[in-house]
Design brief:
The chain is mainly alpha-helical and 760 residues long. The protein contains 30 helices and 5 strands. The protein has helices at residues 3-8, 11-45, 51-104, 139-172, 186-203, 212-225, 229-237, 241-252, 262-283, 288-300, 315-322, 330-347, 376-386, 388-394, 413-421, 439-453, 472-485, 490-496, 501-510, 512-519, 544-554, 558-578, 584-616, 620-631, 634-638, 671-686, 692-695, 700-720, 729-732, 734-745, and strands at 107-113, 116-121, 641-643, 646-650, 659-663. The N and C termini lie far apart (79 Å).
Length: 760
């Protein structure tokens, strides 16, 4: 910084600019609140139709969000400007005092431009006059003043330059609109950037020479700042993409002596997660530097890295293991995935996997005993599982698809390849892994869960403010999934991709209302919009036969059968709660809820019985045990938590990833749902110590009887809870209607309702 710039700078104008920013921030705060509570809230409640459902509503939602980002960015800029103004004013005061002290010693400081200055020792004209006393000075005084002024100008220059750099980085975060990056002051933003530059130097070292202490320093910084936008971008762009990949490959290489140093292994595990999260945050920036970085990373995908570590992996193999963690830019993930699938299609043939083979010992994943990380498709699909927007786009319906997906040409090419054509192999560790597990199938299920539900597959849906996140686009993916797994090849696909069963069940549960809607008509005519109104615009329509086929395949597997059955039962009960017998319309809706729910249950249960009998053939005891385990689905529904019109149903294991999100008919629940949940929780606790495998003995006849009984309990709850319900011929026919819907669709019409059981 020039001496005169600090000495004579008009900081009053900067102060006026800050005052303007403060006023803008206050105005934007008002607009932010209005956009959220007025514009956004009204958009969420409005009944959109046609183009407005997909175009206008999305625009309104995005606009409401932009007001929040605009406020955040304006507030951050005002803080940075305010901090810089105060510091520069303080430095000017410090400089003025230093110059005044120098003048008292007859020392003059002059600006010579471009940050330089001179210190001159003045000779007083009266120095030789008799009786005159003047301040003395020497070379040491001039040097001391020079050093003092240099220090002041250096501090001012750092204050000014870091503010300018921070503001540029902040503005570059978003090419259009505003950045959501939020900093309390200039120093916190500048410290993040400085720390990024410092630890990026570790990545420039040979990974073999990096000490455990350095890895700990790296992980500590990435843990602290990994989700900081400015830190992440500066960290990523300070190291070329191939440098990042080679570094991680060297650290992750299992032949780097982990057995002798378990602390290094622990740091390597942490690095996979922390580095993945940080790189993901970096991709959210729209700066030119990050766009260039992303393009280079994708271009590196097919190429070997030219390193002796981790079997000289290709770029895809390394980056896919890092992106298992973090929030990544949707466009980057889609571009990356397009190139990966293109490369994989050309080389993934039976018996000749380019990834999983005897000569590839490049373990790059620390997160699972059943996934060494050699297949980059697995890590990429995990990334989609954590990035729902990217997943929905990656599996989007092709242009021109009909209202109901009923032909192969209406299926996304990526989805068709990954579910039907790709050769998937187990990538389990030889020691401790299960070679029957194909981790890629599990990750494919995670990606499809995110694509169809709008939630990351392991997200907690019960965090306050969460809601039904389905859209016309997510429904478009779900229609394709139902078509593929409800097709003639569906039973075989589910059997060979058993790791997908829980995910398919969760997807079916997430669309249980649309499944009921598709079953409610006569063929594909006269679906019941009154009883089963859409909860979002552009709802899924699977067609009646498509729905039957899909449910019949889900029913064949114990896991998917239990998940969808629990969701169906809760949905039917919530329909009864939402339609008390206060009007003829409500009574009709309750009747349709029970009969349509009975039809769905009949399809699921019949498929489960047929598959158990087919799988275990003459072993009746094992078949009965299988049915007994399937009858335990009530324990799933019993543990449900309900809020905001959705139910969170925990699966065995009680991890975040084991949560089923299912829609209910209303935002609040009533007696029918509460009675079921409370009763079954008590019942489950009483028998908690029993071995379910030993207790699971249930013949098919008893299995069907239990299904009818559960439907009957729902009917009884509704009738007894509505004393004003008038007795009529119509009402007296309800029991038979409900029973027929269950048995008529199930055992009596099995020959032409749904897919047959899978046979080896």
């Amino acid at each position: 910084m020039d001496l005169d710039a600090l000495r004579f700078g008009n900081f009053a104008q900067l102060g006026e600019a800050i005052a303007d920013w403060d006023q803008m921030t206050r105005n934007l705060a008002t607009l932010r609140t209005d956009a959220k509570d007025n514009l956004g809230a009204k958009a969420a409640k409005a009944r959109w139709a046609g183009e407005n459902a997909t175009v206008t509503r999305a625009f309104v939602d995005k606009t409401a969000g932009e007001f929040a980002d605009a406020y955040t960015q304006a507030h951050t800029i005002a803080r940075i400007l305010g901090d810089t103004h105060d510091e520069l004013v303080a430095f000017r005061a410090e400089l003025t005092e230093a110059l005044a002290q120098g003048a008292r010693k007859n020392l003059t400081v002059r600006d010579t431009g471009e940050g330089s200055f001179t210190v001159t020792m003045n000779v007083h004209p009266d120095r030789a006059a008799k009786g005159t006393t003047v301040a003395g000075h020497g070379r040491s005084d001039a040097d001391a003043l020079r050093d003092q002024v240099e220090a002041i100008l250096g501090k001012a220059a750092r204050s000014d330059s870091t503010a300018a750099e921070t503001l540029r980085l902040l503005v570059d975060q978003a090419e259009y609109g505003f950045s959501g990056a939020d900093y309390a002051d200039r120093d916190s933003a500048a410290e993040a950037v400085a720390e990024a530059e410092a630890i990026a130097k570790i990545l420039g070292k040979d990974p073999h020479d990096v000490t455990v202490t350095e890895l700990n320093r790296l992980n500590t910084a990435l843990t602290t700042y990994g989700k900081d936008p400015l830190f992440a971008e500066r960290f990523a762009t300070s190291t070329p993409p191939d440098g990042v990949l080679k570094f991680y490959a060297g650290i992750a290489d299992p032949y780097q002596g982990y057995g002798a140093d378990p602390k290094r292994l622990e740091q390597a595990k942490l690095l996979q997660r922390n580095l993945g999260i940080t790189l993901g945050t970096a991709t959210l920036s729209d700066s030119d530097a990050m766009r260039s970085w992303e393009e280079k990373m994708i271009k590196l995908g097919p190429d070997e890295l030219g390193t002796d570590d981790a079997n000289n992996p290709r770029g895809f193999a390394v980056m896919s293991n890092l992106m298992r963690f973090g929030d990544y830019d949707d466009q980057f993930l889609n571009d990356y995935g397009d190139r990966l699938v293109e490369y994989d299609k050309e080389r993934n043939v039976k018996g000749m996997s380019p990834w999983i083979n005897n000569w590839n010992q490049g373990d790059l994943n620390f997160s699972s005993e059943n996934d060494r990380g050699r297949d980059p498709m697995t890590g990429f699909l995990e990334a989609l599982g954590h990035n729902p927007g990217a997943a929905t786009r990656f599996f989007a319906q092709p242009d021109g698809a009909g209202a109901t997906v009923d032909k192969e040409s209406e299926v996304n090419g990526h989805l068709s390849y990954l579910t039907k054509d790709r050769v998937w192999l187990s990538d389990a560790y030889a020691m401790g892994g299960d070679d029957k597990v194909i981790a890629g199938h599990d990750s494919l299920g995670h990606a499809l869960e995110a694509a169809t539900t709008g939630y990351a597959y392991d997200a907690d849906p019960m965090i306050p403010g969460n809601r039904d996140l389905r859209t016309a686009e997510t429904a478009g993916v779900m229609e394709q999934v139902a078509f593929l797994y409800g097709s003639e090849d569906g039973p075989k696909m589910l059997h060979e991709q058993s790791q997908l069963a829980d995910s398919l069940g969760k997807m079916g549960a997430a669309y249980i209302d649309d499944i009921n809607y598709s079953l409610s008509g006569i063929g594909d005519h006269a679906q019941d919009d009154s009883a089963f109104p859409a909860k979002y615009q552009g709802r899924a329509d699977f067609g009646e036969q498509g729905t039957i086929n899909f449910l019949s395949v889900l029913g064949q597997n114990e896991s998917s059968h239990g998940i969808v059955t629990a969701a169906q039962h809760l949905y039917t009960l919530s329909m009864l709660d939402a339609n008390p017998a206060t009007s003829e319309a409500n009574i009709d809706n309750a009747h349709d809820a029970l009969t349509t729910g009975g039809e769905a249950r009949g399809i699921l249960d019949f498929a489960r019985v047929q598959q158990a009998e087919t799988t275990y053939k003459d072993d009746a005891e094992q078949a009965n045990k299988s049915l007994g385990r399937s009858g335990d689905w009530v324990k799933l529904g019993a543990g449900a938590v309900v809020a905001g019109g959705i139910a969170a149903i925990p699966l065995p294991g009680s991890t975040a990833a084991a949560i089923v999100v299912a829609p209910l008919a209303a935002d609040t629940i009533g007696n029918a749902v509460n009675t079921f949940i409370g009763h079954e929780i008590d019942k489950g606790i009483q028998g908690a110590e029993k071995d379910p495998t030993e207790q699971a003995q249930l013949a098919s006849q008893d299995f069907y009887r239990a299904g009818i009984d559960q439907l009957g309990s729902g009917y009884t709850t509704y009738a007894e809870g509505n004393p004003d319900l008038k007795s009529s011929d119509y009402k007296r026919d309800w029991p038979k209607d409900i029973e027929s819907s269950y048995l008529g669709v199930g055992s009596l019409q099995a020959d032409y309702r749904g897919r047959p059981a899978y046979k080896d």
